[in-house]
Amino acid sequence: MKALPGTLLLLWVLALSACERREPDNIPVGLAPPQGLPVIPLPPDSPLTQARIELGRTLFMDRRLSHNNTLSCAMCHVPEQGFTSNELGTAIGLEGQTIRRNSPTVYNVAYVEQLFHDGREFSLENQAWGPLLAGNEMANPSIGYVIEKIRVLPEYAGRFEKAFGGRGPDVLTVGQALAAYQRTLVSGNSRFDRWHYGKEQNALNAEEQAGFRLFSGKAGCSACHVVGEKHALLSDNRFHNTGIGYANSMGLPKKHRVQLAPGVFVEVEDKALDSFEQPQPDVGRYEVTLDPADSWAYRTPSLRNVALTSPYMHDGSLPTLEEVIEFYDRGGIDNPQKNPLLKPLALSATEKRALAAFLKSLTGDNVQKLVTEARAAQPADTPPEKDPASTYRRSY
């Protein structure tokens, strides 16, 4: 073979290396699961890359993705509040509209098989569009409206194309970017994980260890909040009727604790508290399957980071872990479809304290890091100069 001239050989080597080299932020990112959690499931057609993760994080924090430029994903899933909202039993959407269910945490959402409390969506890519389009959440009028708004925001210029091989913002790439970021919100290696899986004997104290024995024994919590041999999702990813949804639908008498003065509280029945909004009907998973057996059933949430994600239950009606334990100790609320696993437990006060102490040991060791990364996104808050619906012109 005839030797190549020096200049030609150098150009050939440089061209070959350029073909083999990818942009550093577009190399697929492999997330090693923390102790206590299994391999993170990733769809083959939606790989994680640094560019997609960072783009999704910016979108998640951007208030301009709501119709009136005021509400971001992070305002219902607040990073500092366990990626839920500690102040609200049920979320508040655009212009103060009530949302009928509690904001679920997005910690470890990569492991959830059927999303939302009723399991109506099956992938994070598709789920992302639900809040964007819901009339009482971010209230955008259409998919196209969201896409055109993103196109005219200068902060996103070129970022989709860089993350998706030249493809701009569209129904697929917006969902994939948001999903990529949410799949990185993996939190494990809690003190419980280090004790149970890492065999660190002193990672839990005696009361917390007693609480775990109750959790997996007398209290029966692990029947739904599963602890496996090698890892613990602390959820069975199934749907159960505890009676709370039934009680809400049937209008059974409920009481609220009302503060009259500092340190002075009274219990007041709901019927004595006039509401400016009527309660919204909610029959749980029945709305998805139309099977009467699924009435008032809701997805089992993971208990990881549960100490950070108050208030609890699908409607945010139980403010503290102690009240959750009291609810289950009573056996839930009786109704025809109530899960037969729910029965009165007759736990002592000491056992209840131990169970609460154990639940508080389930906080992952990286929560502050994930909060810091979320806040570092800091998207601009300047809305488009003109509404995209007023300026759109087809380009083909």
Task: Outline the structure in words.
- There is one protein chain.
- It is built from 15 helices and four strands.
- It has a two-stranded antiparallel sheet. A two-stranded antiparallel ribbon has the order 2-3.
- With 396 residues, the chain is mainly alpha-helical.
- A hairpin with a 2-residue loop joins strand 2 (255-261) and strand 3 (264-269).
- The chain is globular.
- It has two domains: 30-187 and 368-391, Cytochrome Bc1 Complex, Chain D, domain 2, CATH 1.10.760.10; 191-363, Cytochrome Bc1 Complex, Chain D, domain 2, CATH 1.10.760.10.
Helix/strand layout:
Elements: H1 6-20, H2 50-61, H3 124-127, H4 129-133, H5 143-152, H6 159-163, H7 171-183, H8 191-196, H9 206-216, E1 239-240, H10 244-250, E2 255-261, E3 264-269, H11 286-289, E4 298-299, H12 321-329, H13 349-359, H14 367-376, H15 388-391
Antiparallel strand pairs: 1-4, 2-3
Helix pairs in contact: 2-7, 9-13, 12-13
Classify the fold: give the CATH topology of the largest domain.
Answer: Cytochrome Bc1 Complex, Chain D, domain 2
- The percentage helix is 25-40%
- Largest sheet data: 2 strands, antiparallel
Poorly predicted runs are 8-24
Task: Using the CA coordinates, give the radius of gyration.
Answer: 24 Å
Strand order of the main beta sheet, please? 1-4
CATH superfamily of the largest domain: Cytochrome c-like domain
Query: What's the shape?
Result: globular
Mean pLDDT: 89
**Through-space gap between termini:** 50 Å
How many domains would you count in the coordinates?
2
Extended strand count: 4
**Main CATH class of the largest domain:** Mainly Alpha
Strand content: under 5%
The helix-strand sequence is HHHHHHHHHEHEEHEHHHH
Number of helices: 15
The CATH level-2 architecture of the largest domain is identified as: Orthogonal Bundle
Give the structural class. Answer: mainly alpha
